[in-house]
Structure formats: C-alpha cells, structure tokens
Amino acid sequence: MKNLYVGNLPHSTTEAELRGVFEAHGAVEKVSIVTDRETGRARGFAFVEMTNPAEADKAVAALNGKELGGRALKINEAKPKTDAPRGGGGGKRFGGGGAGSRDDYQGHARQPREPRW
User: Fold this and answer.
1) CA–CA distance from 31 to each of 23, 79, 104, 115 (Å)?
2) Are 35 and 43 within 8 A, CB to CB?
3) 66-117 pLDDT, tens per residue?
4) Residue 93: its pLDDT value, please?
5) Which of 25, 29, 39, 55 has fewest C-beta within 10 Å?
6) How many Å is the maximal CA-CA distance in the chain?
7) What is the pLDDT of residues 42-63, one digit of tens each?
8) CA–CA separation, 109 and 116 (whole Å)
9) What one-character DSSP code corresponds to residue 90?
10) Average pLDDT of 9-28?
11) In the prediction, which pLDDT does 102 show?
C-alpha cells in the first residue's frame, strides 16, 4: 500500500476522474479529494492510495508533470502528518524585534498610564 499526494489539481476534478487517471497504472484502493471545511469546494489537492507500491512508483513517474484540466500535476509520495504544530516557521509571528524591543526595559518599573476615556 502506498499513499500518493496529488497537487495542483483543477478544482473541478472529481474522484471518479482522478481514479480513472491512476487506474491506468495500477489498482487504486482509495481516492480522497481534500475540500474546504467551510465552502465544501475542492482545495486543489488529493491523496490517492494504491495497493501495489511498485505500481504507485510507476504512476508517479508517468503522471508527475502531466496536464489534467490545463494544470500540470505535482505527484509524490505522501508524507505522514507529524505531531509538530502547524503554522510554517514557528517562533514569534508578530512584532518587529530589533532595536526598540520590550526587553530593553527589563528591570525598570512600569509607568502607570492614564485611561484613554
């Protein structure tokens, strides 16, 4: 069993259409087109599970870069999800850092502020 990631899909692609493309290269166990939770619209990628790993490798070699609906497919072996938090890049997301960071004031008493109203 081998799970393949299929990216750059046209949003109009159906599971049956994708299954047909991959079945030309071997037995397909499952096709999952990923959709947006709120809109239900396809997000442009899918996962195809193939029974035979050798056939899956042949399908990747044959279909990667091929056009479907005017878009070049990007196909590779799907990597299992890691437990790492999502967000791309980690660390501090906001804030400028640099010369005027808050750390410059460590050890100094904080001045009370006047209310804005």
Assistant:
1) 11, 16, 55, 59
2) yes
3) 999 999 999 999 987 776 555 555 555 555 555 555 555 566 677 777 877 7
4) 55
5) 39
6) 72
7) 999 999 999 999 999 999 999 9
8) 21
9) -
10) 94
11) 56
What ranges make up the beta strands (E) of 1-117? 2-7, 28-35, 42-50, 67-68, 71-72, 74-77
What fold does the segment set 2-46+53-76 form as a domain? Alpha-Beta Plaits (3.30.70)
Q: Domain segments of the chain: what residues?
A: 2-46+53-76
Neighbouring C-beta atoms of residue 21, cutoff 10 Å: 19
What is the C-alpha separation between 91 and 16, in angstroms, rounded?
Answer: 42
Q: Which residue would you say has higher pLDDT here, 113 or 24? A: 24
CA–CA distance, 106 with 80 (Å, rounded to integer): 43
CB 28 within 8 A of CB 50: yes
Measured CA to CA, the distance from residue 55 to residue 14 in angstroms comes to: 22
* Dihedral angle, C-alpha 51, 9, 60, 25, nearest 10 °: 50
